[in-house]
Amino acid sequence: MSIQQITESIHIIKVILTAAKNAGIDSHIALQAIHLKPEVLDDPDARIPMAMEIALWDFLVSRTGDKFFGLHAGAGLTPGEFDVMDYAIRTSKNLRLALENASRYNRLLHDEAILELLTDEKYAYFNHYFRTDPRGANWHAADFTLASVVGIGRAITGKQWNARKICFQHAEPKDISEYEQFFCCPIEFNCENNSVVFDKALLDAPIPESDPALNLVLCRHADDMLKKLPRREDIVERVREQLTKALRGGNPSIEAIAESLNMTPRTLQRHLKEVNTSHKTLLNEMRKELAQHYLENPNIGISEVAYLLGYSEPSVFHRAFKRWFDVTPGELKAQ
pLDDT tens digits for 83-124? Predict the structure, then answer.
C-alpha cells in the first residue's frame, strides 16, 4: 500500500493542531500548508491520506523551530483527544487492559499502524510499527506515539513510572537530552520497532478512574465502528504484510510467504498474477523503497543494508541497487 493510499482518522490531525495552537501556531495557517479544508475537521468520521499528517509534522517543526515537536506534542496530550478509543483506554480496569484496548482499536485511527503488547517473564513490550512498511512511522509521529503511550500510562495509573528502555526506529539525533528528560530511562535508536519496554508487573497497575460498565459500552461502540471500516482482504496487502515481517530478519522467499498465508507457492503465484503482479515484483519494490531509506542513515553501513534487505551476498544487493537508481550504494550514500 502506497503512502497515498494509507488513510487515518481526522482525530490525529486535530490532536496535532491542538499541539500547534499551544505552540502559538494558527490552525488555519497549518491547514493551508497541507491543503486541507477546515470543514473536514467537523466530520468525526472523516479519513485523510497519511501524507497530510507527515506534511503537517514537517510544517510545524519548520515553523516552530522545535526539532522535537512530536515528542512535546505527545507529552502534552489531554484526556479524550482520541475520541472513543481514548475513553475505552482510560476506563479500563488496569494498564494491561488499557494497552490491549489501544492495540485493538488503533485501526480506528490509522490503516497501517499496529500497536502490539508482548510479554516475557520479566518485561512487557508495547510495540509500534507499520503493517506493510518496515520503515514505520516518520520521526515526529514515532516520537509522538511513544510519548503518548508513556504519558497516558502515567496519567491513568497515577504513577510516575519509568520504562526500562525506549526504542526508536529512526536515527539518533545529536542531542537526546529531550528524550532523557521525559522518559527518564535509556534510549536506543535504529531499532527494529518503536517500543516501550517496562516491568511486566506494571501491567497489573489499577486505573483509579476505571468504570467497568462504561468501558463495556465504549468497547461495544468501538467494535461497531471497526466493523464499518473497509475490509483488508487484498492479496497484495496480505503479501506485503508478510514481506514486512520477513524483512525484519525472516525469510522473504515465495515458499515462506505462501506458507504464512496457508497456501502453496503455485496458488500464491496464480493469485498475484490475477492482479498483474508477482512475489518478485512486490519484494523488489519493498527492497527498493527500504534501500534508499536505510542508506540515508549514516549509522547503517552498506553491507548491513544488504543484510537488512534479505540478500545473501552484498554483491547481489549492489547489482540490484545499480539497476534501480543508476548509481552504486556507495555513490548515493556519499551524496
Answer: 999 999 999 999 999 999 999 999 999 988 999 999 999 999
Question: Does one domain contain both 137 and 220?
Answer: yes
Q: Is residue 330 part of a domain?
A: yes
The DSSP element (H or E) to which 187 belongs, if any, is strand 187-188
Q: For residue 19, is it within any domain?
A: no
Look up residue 329 and give its amino acid.
P
User: How much is the average pLDDT of 192-205?
Assistant: 95
Query: What's the rounded Cα separation, in Å, for the pair 280 and 278?
Result: 5
Half-sphere CA count of 99, side-chain side, radius 13 A: 32
List the grid coordinates of 306. Answer: 544488504
* Interior angle at CA 166, CA 247 and CA 136, nearest 5: 35
Count Cβ atoms within 10 A of the Cβ of residue 141 and give its class: 0-12 exposed, 13-18 middle, 19 or more buried: buried
> Do 259 and 125 fall into the same domain?
no
* Contact (Cβ atoms closer than 8 angstroms) between residue 68 and residue 177: no
Give the domain extent around 277.
235-334
Q: Residue 309 to residues 49, 132, 134, 170, 228: CA-CA distances in angstroms?
A: 27, 14, 10, 17, 36
Of 100, 89, 99, residue with least CA distance to 209: 89
C-alpha span between 280 and 283 (Å, rounded): 5
**249 and 168 within one domain:** no
Of 228, 253, 286, the domain-final residue: 228
Q: Quick one: CA dihedral 126, 130, 136, 139, positive or negative?
A: negative
CA 148 → CA 141, 270, 289, 309, 324, distances in Å?
10, 43, 28, 31, 38
| pTM recorded for the entire structure | 0.78
User: Is residue 141 a part of any domain in this protein?
Assistant: yes
Which of 206, 228, 250 represents a domain boundary (last residue)?
A: 228
- Asked if 261 contacts 215 with a C-beta cutoff of 8 angstroms, the reply is no
